[in-house]
Amino acid sequence: MARTAVSGRLGDRLRWRVGTLVERRPETPAARTLVLDVPGWPGHLPGQHVDVRLTAEDGYSTQRSYSLASASDSGRIELTVQRVRDGEVSPYLADDWAVGDAVELRGPVGGWFVWRTDQKEPVLLVAGGSGIVPLMAMIRTRRAVGSRVPFRLVYSLRTPEDLMYAQELRRGDPGLDIAYVYTRSAPDGLRRPPGRLGAQDLAAAGWPAEFEPAVYVCGPTGFVEHAADLLVDLGHDPGRIRTERFGPSGG
After folding, report:
1. Are residues 138 and 232 in the same domain?
2. What's the pLDDT score for residue 17?
3. Which secondary-structure segment (H or E) carries 143?
4. Of 74, 121, 155, 166, whose CB has the highest number of CB atoms within 10 Å?
5. Beta bridge partners of 220
6. Domain termination residue (choose one: 109, 142, 159)
7. What is the pTM of this model?
8. Structural domain of 53
9. Where are the beta strands (DSSP E) in 70-145?
10. Does residue 142 share a domain with residue 203?
């Protein structure tokens, strides 16, 4: 009986559904948040992603994976898509996909890189660029359920113009501490000069290793490997560091 129930749930998540775009919001010059209504959506955990499939009139089909940005119980799902230069899918979703248009979705997918609301240990989130997206789902879910688990976010980005969810993050939540690391140019008055994420950034803004936090690192492959190495060098247990990475995929 248990095996049948689990198989049914997996089959439900892995079938294709039709979602309709109901809202789009600019996040940065190159990124848009897309709000979709997906009838029969089974719900998701923060950190999971979906597969998006586009099919042309001649039958050509292509698909990409995108992290879910919305809280688990938000009713509708949100994807934040950053346009990839010369990409095949992201320019259409970011620039051309219109409210009322439909798309095929499959998911939610993934069970390792997730935060569950019954976890009690402090949480350290480390984002590189658009790697903030699944971490934002964790922040939003924490807020939605009224969790008192302390969160710290270290957000590395190239320039102030690349900051996603700017107003929401600046508004802040009780128990959420945020540190920004700018690698190319920084806002006026910021004492830290632009530069790559370093051990001192994680030591100052993250949790000490002895606190045994749950750590989530997301971003481009090089960033994730670099950040994870720094965390291990700072004494964090590799088994407590969960990573999600992305690289060139054709967009």
Report:
1. yes
2. 96
3. helix 132-145
4. 155
5. 246
6. 109
7. 0.93
8. 2-109
9. 77-82, 102-109, 123-128
10. yes
